[in-house]
Amino acid sequence: MERVKAMFTYFTKFEICLWVCSVMLTVISYIVFDRENHVMLLASVIGATYLIFNAKGNPIGQVLLILFSILYGIISYSFSYYGEMITYLGMSTPMAILALISWMRNPYKGNRAEVEINVMNKTEIVFMFLLTAVITVLFYFILKYFRTANLIFSTLSVATSFLAVYLTLRRNRFFTLAYAANDIVLIILWIMATLHNTSYMSVTICFFMFLINDIYGFFNWTKMLQKQQNNPVKD
User: Fold this and answer.
1) pLDDT greater than 80 at residue 82
2) For the chain, what is the HEC assignment?
3) Which end of the chain is more exposed for a tag (fewer CB within 10 A), N or C?
């Protein structure tokens, strides 16, 4: 009982409302458009939960992201979105494991429920974009070889996903915006899939919900960064 009370005091009323609305939207879209893909329902609920923990800079979010990535890889395989499958199983999952280790090793003032936010220098930013370009070109030819559906958008998804996981690993607040950009690409991808099978509309709605959560995450991480800069960790 005490843990439940602590959970309600940990999250703000807005965050609780955002999570509840996200889960309700997920369940309603599942009932209306799907009713068969139980894996998608489970992935969506886990996704909504990991996003609210990520918005707080809590390492639990990375644990849930690992579970979501595995489930989403399975869903992507069902529509021949091999780019999504390879990205989430081959990149997002291992990077989330590394991010989990990084977040746990860098708590803000010993508070394991809040990671210490990192600000990257210009050299690393340039390196990040160059590495993203190389990864994107490489994956374009890999996905083309496997005849991935909607190749261009699938390649864009790889680029935005890599930026997101890199920034997450580096504990940088802009990972939320990179994920938001990825959400937009994925909304387009799954709208295309929905034209062939309306049950995928629930996936589209799921990523629309993710977009709203990621935008909130950016504002909350910006607020957290200002707080941490005003109360820096002493060496």
Assistant:
1) no
2) CHHHHHHHHHCCHHHHHHHHHHHHHHHHHHHHHCCCCHHHHHHHHHHHHHHHHHHCCCCHHHHHHHHHHHHHHHHHHHCCCHHHHHHHHHHHHHHHHHHHHHHHHCEECCEEEEECCCCCCHHHHHHHHHHHHHHHHHHHHHHHHCCCCCHHHHHHHHHHHHHHHHHHHCCCCCHHHHHHHHHHHHHHHHHHHHCCCHHHHHHHHHHHHHHHHHHHHHHHHHHHHHHHHHCCCCC
3) C
